[in-house]
Automatic annotation (TrEMBL):
Name of this chain's protein: Sugar ABC transporter permease
Lineage of producing organism: Bacteria, Bacillati, Actinomycetota, Actinomycetes, Kitasatosporales
Top-level taxon in the UniProt lineage: Bacteria
Principal cellular location given in the protein's record: membrane
Residue ranges of domain ABC transmembrane type-1 in the record: 81-291
Organism: Streptomyces tremellae
């Protein structure tokens, strides 16, 4: 008498398992093929090119470790790595608190929030080139804002000093990309269960304590994701440096990506440029993995209901 219900229960269990199981690897094949064709294949070709000498004409000639040896003996290259790390670190320090606070605020029910948020997110819709040209015009020492407020900017040539140029790059990057990270925090904040805030309010916690003890811990995954995006974006930035400073003054803002451009497309040394590009990929990947490991992000379990 008990065999029929047991069989039915097993059938329902198998159906439920099929409905909630993760999709098979077949579903990932189009994405894997796209990634392999447009990411892995070019990366392998760049790695091969880094061991050659090629000016862009004729056929590449095998050069062994010559490009790599020169790379680590080049003081400009070592300085460019330091500048890339510096700009990335400053970007994280500036953008993280700004985007976190704005994202949490934008997730609330304030009056006029939608309009203000829409205006704030406008820079995110512009290309890096457009943003850089805009700020280049605004910071023109002869006709821009600094020329009209010399009491604040001195001679007005902010891009003429190392400190000023680095500061401009950090501000421009924050102006454009803070909205992106604010969107991440806005979505993550809206996903926090309201019952946590209700329980905190019952315990007598005000807005500040709720933010510190409820909101921030719940945004841990979002913070790690945002920081990784900032690190990868900061280490590989190029457009803004090309348009705003062109690596100057001197080589004070010659970051690694821009130095790669100078070597390959100005100096016609594509082997050296490929070596710099490959090194940049390795550094960006290593830093991202360190962030993931230190944050414990790789050990966090998924929270999506219905998936096992």
């Amino acid at each position: 008498m008990t065999s029929a219900p047991t069989t039915a229960a097993r059938a329902r269990g198998r159906a439920t398992a099929r409905g909630t199981a993760r999709p098979g690897v077949v579903w990932a094949l189009p994405a894997l093929a796209f990634f392999g064709l447009f990411a892995l294949v070019p990366l392998v070709l760049v790695a091969v090119l880094s061991f050659t000498s090629w000016s862009g004409l004729g056929s590449p000639a095998f050069a062994g470790l010559t490009n790599w040896t020169k790379l680590f003996q080049d003081p400009v290259m070592l300085q460019s790595l330091w500048l890339s790390v510096l700009l990335t670190g400053l970007g994280v320090l500036v953008q993280t608190p700004l985007s976190l606070l704005i994202g949490v605020w934008a997730a609330g029910p304030q009056r006029g929030r939608a309009v203000l948020a829409a205006v704030f997110f406008v820079p995110l819709l512009l290309s890096v080139t457009a943003v850089s040209v805009l700020w280049r015009a605004l910071l023109d020492p002869n006709f821009g804002v600094p020329a009209q407020a010399r009491w604040l900017f001195g001679d007005g040539n902010l891009l003429g000093s190392r400190t000023g140029a680095i500061g401009v790059l950090v501000v421009v990057s924050a102006w454009q990309y803070t909205p992106l990270h604010s969107l991440i925090y806005q979505g993550a904040t809206r996903a926090i269960p309201k019952v946590l805030y209700q329980a905190a309010a019952v315990d007598g916690a005000g807005r500040v304590r709720q933010f510190l003890h409820v909101t921030l811990p719940q945004l841990r995954n979002a913070v790690v994701t945002s920081v990784i995006l900032m690190v990868v974006g900061g280490l590989t930035t190029f457009d803004s440096v090309l348009i705003l400073t062109q690596g100057g003054p001197g080589s004070d803002t010659t970051i690694t990506a821009y130095y790669m451009y100078e070597k390959a497309f100005k100096g016609f040394d594509y082997g050296a440029g490929a070596a710099i590009a490959l090194l940049l990929v390795v550094v960006a990947t290593a830093v991202s993995l360190v962030v993931v490991r230190l944050s414990g992000y790789d050990r966090m379990a998924g929270t999506q209901e219905g998936l096992s």
